[in-house]
Amino acid sequence: MGWTAAPSRRRDRVSRALLLTILLMQALLSLRLRNAVSPDEALLLNTGRQYLDRMREGTAITEADTASSYLHPMVAAAIDGLAGPAGARLFSLLCLLGATAALYSLARRLFNERVALFTAASFAVVEPTLFLGNFVSPDPPAIFMLALAGRLAARLDRSPAWHVLLVAPAAALAVLISPTAVLLLPAVVLLAVLVAGRGHGPGRSLGWGAGLVAVLGATLAAAAVGVGMPVAPDPAATGTDAPQTVLRTAASLGGLLFLLAVLGTIFYTHRDRMGEAPILPDERPSPSRAWRLALGTVLSGAALAVPGYALLQHTSADLHRQLGYGLLLAAPMAGVGIARIIGPHFRNLQLGIAAWIALLLFGMAQSERFYYEWMDYRPVADALRPLVGPQGRYLSPSPELPAYYLGSRTEREQWADPQELTYTDRRGRTLQGTAAFLAAVRERHFDIVVLGGLTAPDPRQRAAVVTGRRYYMAVEIPFSVGSRSGRYEIWVKQDTGPPARSPS
């Protein structure tokens, strides 16, 4: 029996085996990244711990991660309590593996098995996927829910009208987990309208789209007004990056996949079929050129949503994580691009392999660079552990890190950040910043002052601690992060010994 393009169990088994290989590769590439808990992870886990404590004991929230709602921090903190940060990171990896599998199913539904495999292989190796696969963040579960919403939208051409309502909960939950996902909701709605229009006509599909928008809007409005959950990125989170900096960062991280997606859109608009498989008897007619152009534009254009918002906010700080939302939806068109580059009967296989290897090499190098930007705080925490207790007042850069590592011995409110310090001195003056730091040290308000880190302290601040015999240096801890090096200094108030330890 010769080759056939008709579906078969053998084709399904081979395709699923290749998908499992891609997922295994994605997992190994993410797990190769190893570093201690970052300040962002510590902030999220501290926030989740406080939410859990409030549920159990009614305690107040003293620190909040405004980048996400309370849904993911609570789940991550619960997993962290059982399995440590490795367990919380494993949850992120499982979410992204699920997103890759859902993306494969979406592309297979819209195109074919070959495009689906190229789609999964492309998304599995880009920098945001590899980085977030071993990082505690609300982005992985939100990306998974967005992929699930896209997969549900891709089946609306052969589904009854009420199935459009299944898209809304998945899309809304993505936003409630991470408000960044709201930037991709227009692409999900347009995808649903286009797919539904192919099977049910443009008139009905527009009605379905209006219903989907209404349900999404009502759900998110209820969450924002009734519960107070954020449903959009924080507009106050602005930066000072120049537009060229934002564009350069976005292009370096996702530009190659976006270029492949644009090529895929051009190829798909020009010709629907691969030119390899004969038309099957039960196959539907090819969609119109206008429909193909619209689908390619919606999916590939989704990659521009996050960089566009970053341009408005003048910040590129989180692009290495947030670009994953747009690349998720652009990946199917990148899969089409690779498939068309290879051509029928694998005519130009070497070109497709070269494009994917370029994606792989960029993804590995960039994820490693971003993953080792922070230092291992555990030696500092070990040095602080015998010096702290439940009654002291402590000043430290990145206070979320000692609060996380010393959570059983101190509370978060005992730690203050020199950069955000507000202090009322003995004369009743309320001071901020460096003035607050100098007054607090002069009046020996803090029992321990930690200096150092990747950013050197203000010389005036260090001089205030070092001089005057108010504090003595208990320990000095050097460290290095890549080509950068520095040190932490732990200064203890002169007239205090080690404080009483809280129960372990």
TrEMBL record:
One of its GO terms (cellular component) is plasma membrane. It is found in: Cell membrane. It is a multi-pass membrane protein. It comes from Thermomonospora curvata (strain ATCC 19995 / DSM 43183 / JCM 3096 / KCTC 9072 / NBRC 15933 / NCIMB 10081 / Henssen B9). It comes from the Bacteria. The chain crosses the membrane at residues 90-107, 114-136, 161-194, 206-229, 249-269, 290-311, 323-342, 349-365. GO terms for molecular function: pentosyltransferase activity. Pfam families: PMT_2 (PF13231). Residues 87-214 form the Glycosyltransferase RgtA/B/C/D-like domain. Keywords: Cell membrane, Glycosyltransferase, Membrane, Transferase, Transmembrane, Transmembrane helix. One of its GO terms (biological process) is lipopolysaccharide biosynthetic process. This is Glycosyltransferase RgtA/B/C/D-like domain-containing protein.
